[in-house]
């Protein structure tokens, strides 16, 4: 397809108005837009035959398509991208939507995971799409407290409390011979140096400390500490959590192959196979990014669009992402500001909890 910037420059005012009207009509109804419909909505009186000629030119450029021989036109994926980049007027988050998002983060008694779950639910309801929230990467969150709990001879629990309020419970297999006393010693040893450090920083500190004090630390406690470190480094126990709400919004009105593709998308997300990639989608620069259809492989099979924005901590490091998945005829002008506002709000919440 020719360069989009060049197409925008070379399009006549009439072509621009016809193109905009077709796309806006399609986004509003999901139906093809015909020439007779446009004769009633364009600013100048143009015959249906003239409009058809303009639509044929736009189809030749790859911006419009015709699902049936006698039907009107719908925007192609390239046409939607051109519209989003060059024609779309961004709305503002209205008061009711802002109030709903604010309310999802009002409770101070819940941990971050629970709050983000509320945010994801609110996003899904407001946008009528499927919402995705990637919770903070706790490699970058400071630790407040660590505790080991013995469950059986070969199972134990490590409880991690982070400065942002998040609590994680992770199962692991302790070294043989552990006792409640040795677990308390290990926890005391870790807590003495954990506060204010991230997991990555704590690992480095503990390795140095074990090397220096290897003879001073009880052997069983040392093995437990090292076992705990192994648990934290295990990629299969990623501290990232993908929160998904509203899959039914995408399945409503879909049929046949569309349903299968959408289910396949959520199967992939549930397996968390693409969590790292999801965050990477948001990391290339600040602000909201829009992926339409096959522009990203994660959504190419489902034919869905993604609006995603990163959120940051107090140090301006990207620690998670907020997004909405919807059909390609998503109301981008409304959804983009909602996602942007939500990401900024979540970032402030995470930063405030990190300072408390």
Automatic annotation (TrEMBL):
The keyword Repressor applies. InterPro entries: GAF-like_dom_sf, HrcA, HrcA_C, WH-like_DNA-bd_sf, WH_DNA-bd_sf, WHTH_transcript_rep_HrcA_IDD. Residues 115-336 form the Heat-inducible transcription repressor HrcA C-terminal domain. The keyword Phosphoprotein does not apply. Keywords: Repressor, Stress response, Transcription, Transcription regulation. PANTHER family: HEAT-INDUCIBLE TRANSCRIPTION REPRESSOR HRCA. Negative regulator of class I heat shock genes (grpE-dnaK-dnaJ and groELS operons). Prevents heat-shock induction of these operons. This is Heat-inducible transcription repressor HrcA. It comes from Pseudogemmobacter faecipullorum.
């Amino acid at each position: 397809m020719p360069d989009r910037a060049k197409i925008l420059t070379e399009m006549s005012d009439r072509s621009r108005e016809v193109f905009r009207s077709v796309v806006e009509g399609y986004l509003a109804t999901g139906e093809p837009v015909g020439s007779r419909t446009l004769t009633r909505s364009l600013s100048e009186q143009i015959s249906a035959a003239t409009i058809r000629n303009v639509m044929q030119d736009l189809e030749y450029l790859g911006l419009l398509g015709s699902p049936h021989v006698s039907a009107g036109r719908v925007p192609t994926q390239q046409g939607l991208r051109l519209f989003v980049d060059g024609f779309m007027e961004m709305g503002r988050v209205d008061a009711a939507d802002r109030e709903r998002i604010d309310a999802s983060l009002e409770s101070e008694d819940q941990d971050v995971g629970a709050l983000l779950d509320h945010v994801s639910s609110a996003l899904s309801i407001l946008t009528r799409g499927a919402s995705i929230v990637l919770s903070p990467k706790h490699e970058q969150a400071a630790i407040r407290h660590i505790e080991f709990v013995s469950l059986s001879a070969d199972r134990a629990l490590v409880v991690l409390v982070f400065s942002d309020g998040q609590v994680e419970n992770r199962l692991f297999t302790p070294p043989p011979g552990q006792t409640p006393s040795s677990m308390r010693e290990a926890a005391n040893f870790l807590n003495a140096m954990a506060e204010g450090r991230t997991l990555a920083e704590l690992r480095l500190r503990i390795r140095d400390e074990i090397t220096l004090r290897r003879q001073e630390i009880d052997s069983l406690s040392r093995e437990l500490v090292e076992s705990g470190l192994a648990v934290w480094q295990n990629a299969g126990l990623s501290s990232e959590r993908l929160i998904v709400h509203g899959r039914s919004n995408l399945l409503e009105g879909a049929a046949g192959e569309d349903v299968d593709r959408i289910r396949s998308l959520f199967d992939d997300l549930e397996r968390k196979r693409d969590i790292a990639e999801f965050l990477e989608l948001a990391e290339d620069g600040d602000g909201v990014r829009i992926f339409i259809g096959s522009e990203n492989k994660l959504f190419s099979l489902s034919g869905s669009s993604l609006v995603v924005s990163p959120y940051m901590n107090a140090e301006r490091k990207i620690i998670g992402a907020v997004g909405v998945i919807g059909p390609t005829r998503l109301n981008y002008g409304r959804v983009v500001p909602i996602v942007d506002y939500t990401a900024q709000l979540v970032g402030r919440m995470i930063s405030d909890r990190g300072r408390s």
